[in-house]
Structure formats: C-alpha cells, structure tokens
Amino acid sequence: MNLIFRLFWMLLTARFGKRVDIMGESFLTFRCMPTDLDLNFHMTNSRYHSFMDLGRVDFMIRNGAWAKLRGAGLGPVLGSSAIRFRRAINPFQKFRVTTRILAWDERWIYLEHKLIAEGGKMHNETASIAIMNTTFVGKEGRVPTEKLMQIIGYTATQPPLPDVLARKAEMDALLKG
Prior knowledge:
Layout: H1 4-16, E1 25-31, H2 45-63, H3 65-71, E2 75-85, E3 94-104, E4 109-117, E5 126-138, E6 141-142, H4 145-152, H5 163-174
Antiparallel strand pairs: 1-3, 2-5, 3-4, 4-5, 5-6
Helix pairs in contact: 1-2
C-alpha cells in the first residue's frame, strides 16, 4: 500500500463515519498530490487502482461486512479488473472514489469503482470507471458467494448480472493464459 497516510485516515473515518447499505454506494474524497503524478503531470495510472483499493476497504467497513468476514477468518482477493480511463486528474484536483456492488455469481462479487473529478471545468465528470471481481478466501480456499452472503447476513434478492459482466468474463477467459 503506497498510500499509507491516506489508508490510516480512511480507516479512522470509515470506523466512525456514516454507515452504507451493502447494496448502496460509498465514496471517499481525495486530492491529487504531487506524489500521485506521472511524467505527464497528471495522476499516474497505478494510483487509480490504489485509490480503488481504499474504496473497497472503506465500503466493506462502512457496510459491516469487513468485521464479519475477517471475524470468520476470511481475507479479500481481487480476481481481475477492467478499467477505462476517460479524463486526466490534474495536480491538486479533488476527486471522489465511489464503490458499489453491481452483482455476484457463485464465484465472484462484481464491484464498480468510479473516480469522479471535482471542481473546475471537469466538475462531476467521470475520470475513470472500473469493474473488478473479488472474493474471499480462508484456510480451505475460496469461499462460495452464497456462503459470504450468509456470513454478512444479506438475505434480499440477488441483483441480475448486467450484460457488461458477460463481456468481462469473456475477456477474463481470454487472459487466462
């Protein structure tokens, strides 16, 4: 984790911040600092994923899943990600990282992350959007999603899988190597 001070701040604010429904959306606000820049003087591509990491942990803490899953001895594992960069995030620009669950199947929970620019002429424009599939593993390996939902106490209807996830699954299959 190369955003250690932001991680500590996120952990503090997530524990004492507003709760989020498991099917809701969480957001964090940051500012692009000089240490986040690449040679083109905008936020470097790898930072997007790092901020999304913070968004996932914040989301799980705020909806209560983190404590329950960690209490069951399970840890999160990211399976794959597909990201689309749309706009640059410039030095000192504020931006929001949003996180929400799109859907799940028997193996994966599919999350959507957006980095949304704030201020200036790009105000409220999506700078990037990513879909990631994640799961949790324990001593015996991957835990089926149905079991994960039982652990966190989610009993409502499972959302339908959006078409984009079928396309992402095709791409993931091609990249298996």
